[in-house]
Amino acid sequence: MALQNIGASNKDDAFYRYKMPRMLTKIEGRGNGIKTNIVNMVDIAKALARPASYTTKYFGCELGAQSKFDEKTGISIVNGAHDTGKLAAILENFIKKYVQCANCRNPETEVLVSKKQTISLKCAACGFLSDVDMRDKLTNFILKNPPEEKKGGKDKKAMRRAEKERLKEGAAADEEMKKLRKDAAKKKGCSSKENTVKRVSTRKKAGGGGGSSEEEHSTSPTHSGDAADEDDDDVQWQTDTSAEAARKRIAEQLSAATAEMVVLSTEETPYDELVEEIKSSLGNAATAAQLKAVLSSSTLPAKDVMNALFEALFHGAGKGFANDVKKNREYLAAAVPDEGAQILLLQAIGSYCSECSAEALKEVPVVLKVLYDGDVLEEETIVQWYDEAVAAGECSKAVENARRFVEWLQSAESDEE
């Protein structure tokens, strides 16, 4: 199936990752019963994350013709004979009005219907809330047929369980790596002792017990040469820190299967590479959507990705930490698409501030207030993170300083009630 970039402004971007199928139409019937069947409307609507009934109805509104989408068969029909190019142009208008974010033009948005019967689009990339023009004919259809609400409760719990399992597995993997390294060190020590015993026995055999002094004299330079070679080997082992030498040592100590698991200290780790990549993107004035693409392309665990983002954004922060967070709020919003990511963000704040200066620690409540007011963090998530940290006995300064903001949240809620 031929694909194309979503949005006409992105059609020439070879690296654009949001794509949809090219429209396929078929003219059916004749005379007064002629109609246009949009063959792959279901696939197009799925790529746009919108119900196929919305796009079909929009065609009818714009063309002034009757339109119908059959939920059971997935057939989309618009009365009359219509050219594929004309329908594609109308679909492009639909994308601009009901799919793309008005701020960053990213198509990763969600349709929200408020209690006041207004429609808006919430961008998952930059967090911007775009208002839809309620004078458009399609808005009445959307109000009568609102999008299905996501199952928040069970999905969030499942996400939290999966995150806890992932953290447990990561801790188990770290312990396994420590054991492997200890075993490798013991094996190296044992092998060096065995080599020493072998050399001593060889010397005794060469001496023959009652050999002449000439034989001892002739063999002693050889033994001293062996000792010198051994000393040279030891010096090379300690001083040669090149990547190639490190690989050879790993290959000697570990099997082929476990050697790949060892991270060479002489090479830049994937975490460091991600930090540098984020800094490079920020230096090139990347948008929130572009930064999100960088983060989502990383193969590191989500917790490491969040910590790398914090290190790149706020390395060495002290007094004025809250102002820095406010300036980079859009980047943080792009990295927090769901509640699980919010927990990781709060954990990153705690671990980052524990290593910062006292001035940065004092601003933890202000930082939480900035992220809360900017709709980056939700009240329930903040309270949950704080309660779990306290229950786990975590007594870091960041958690202690967050107590004031959590108490303010709870008191504000009781005042509203």
Automatic annotation (TrEMBL):
Pfam families: eIF-5_eIF-2B, W2. One of its GO terms (cellular component) is cytosol. Residues 143-236 are annotated as: Disordered. Residues 146-178 have a biased composition (Basic and acidic residues). GO terms for biological process: formation of cytoplasmic translation initiation complex. Belongs to the eIF-2-beta/eIF-5 family. PANTHER family: EUKARYOTIC TRANSLATION INITIATION FACTOR, W2 DOMAIN-CONTAINING PROTEIN. Catalyzes the hydrolysis of GTP bound to the 40S ribosomal initiation complex (40S.mRNA.Met-tRNA[F].eIF-2.GTP) with the subsequent joining of a 60S ribosomal subunit resulting in the release of eIF-2 and the guanine nucleotide. The subsequent joining of a 60S ribosomal subunit results in the formation of a functional 80S initiation complex (80S.mRNA.Met-tRNA[F]). This is W2 domain-containing protein. It comes from Lolium multiflorum (Italian ryegrass). The lineage of its organism: Eukaryota, Viridiplantae, Streptophyta, Embryophyta, Tracheophyta.
